[in-house]
Amino acid sequence: MTHEMTSFVNFQIGKLYFYYTKNIELARHHLEQAYHGMKEAGAEYTKYRVEIACSIAEVYMQLKIFEPVKQLLRKESAHSRDFPLIHARLLFLLAVLLSFFSVSVFFFRFSFFF
């Protein structure tokens, strides 16, 4: 099996674990393997790499690990502009992530008054 095919299989397995089981750590593992495989595969697989990055972002947001997600989405946003649907998904994920940061900063600032 080729390296690209292995990455596609890891992507599909990661999605299956994320959407249909409670084993989120295994989903994260497979999605990260797929992402690194697509990154090594080159520019012709950019669309799939950005789609995998969005799935990784969803996993990390469910685990409440936000800083790596912010970096990943910002890095991939430059490459996603050629694919409008994936770009919109990425921007919505980034907006949700940034809104969480602004809400947590809001509560942190006003927690001193109570």
Automatic annotation (TrEMBL):
Main localisation: nucleus
GO cellular component: nucleoplasm
Keywords on record: Cell cycle, Cell division, Chromosome partition, Membrane, Mitosis, Nucleus, Transmembrane, Transmembrane helix
Keyword Membrane (UniProt): yes
InterPro entries, A to Z: MAU2
Superkingdom classification of source: Eukaryota
TM region(s), chain numbering: 90-112
Coiled coil segments of this chain: none
Entry's localization field: Nucleus, Nucleoplasm
GO biological process: cell division; chromosome segregation; mitotic sister chromatid cohesion
Family the UniProt entry places it in: Belongs to the SCC4/mau-2 family.
Protein known as: Cohesin loading complex subunit SCC4 homolog
Organism (species): Brugia pahangi (Filarial nematode worm)
